[in-house]
């Protein structure tokens, strides 16, 4: 069986016996594949692979298995996964991914992958909502649920209509709130620091004091 590259990028790579193949074309359930060569060397080995992962190849590789290329692919895969699942800036993501595998990181310096990481981030950001209803709908969509998650749990987002000109979106973690005994509340409201799109007039935060520690 061939190992299939899982990264969602422009190309689909398949590993067979330590060599990298790209899919050239597909007819029904058969993919026609071509060896990617090694470090700039072109290779004529080609063949086909069926949906069960059984392949047939013709030709000989006149190059060693591209171990470094495979390491680079695996490192970029990890970068991609971290970019699409984290909100951290891409430089931090690169540094923390590199710490886990310095050998591969040397093969893929930040400058060489920065633009790709920015593109992955762009592709995995939700559109800017134009109304609070759209905002809540987006956040409640499974695709963007990571924006509702925090270290302690998951936020619930609801938008309610007050009158024909006013609506309110509430973000909170009901499970967390239900677990607390709060006697003192603090309310902070600002008109100054509010998003322009969608147009929000007031941002209001309710905090409660527990065990002498502020918790919002
Ligand atoms: Zn080859």
From TrEMBL:
Highest taxon of source: Eukaryota
Protein name as catalogued: FLYWCH-type domain-containing protein
Organism: Fopius arisanus
């Amino acid at each position: 069986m061939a190992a299939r590259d899982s990264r969602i990028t422009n190309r689909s790579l398949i590993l067979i016996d330590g060599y990298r193949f790209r899919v050239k074309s597909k007819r029904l359930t058969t993919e026609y594949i071509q060896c990617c060569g090694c470090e700039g060397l072109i290779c004529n080995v080609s063949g086909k692979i069926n949906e069960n992962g059984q392949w047939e190849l013709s030709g000989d590789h006149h190059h060693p298995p591209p171990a470094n290329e495979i390491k680079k692919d695996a490192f970029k895969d990890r970068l991609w996964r971290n970019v699409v699942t984290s909100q951290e800036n891409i430089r931090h993501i690169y540094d923390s991914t590199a710490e886990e595998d310095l050998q591969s990181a040397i093969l893929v310096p930040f400058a060489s992958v920065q633009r790709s990481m920015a593109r992955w981030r762009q592709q995995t950001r939700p559109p800017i909502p134009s109304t609070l209803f759209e905002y809540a709908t987006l956040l409640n969509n499974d695709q963007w649920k990571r924006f509702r998650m925090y270290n302690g749990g998951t936020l619930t987002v609801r938008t309610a209509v007050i009158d024909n000109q006013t609506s309110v979106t509430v973000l909170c973690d009901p499970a967390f709130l239900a677990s607390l005994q709060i006697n003192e509340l603090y309310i902070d409201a600002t008109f100054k620091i509010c998003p322009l799109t969608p147009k929000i007039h007031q941002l209001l935060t309710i905090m409660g004091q527990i065990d002498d520690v502020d918790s919002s």
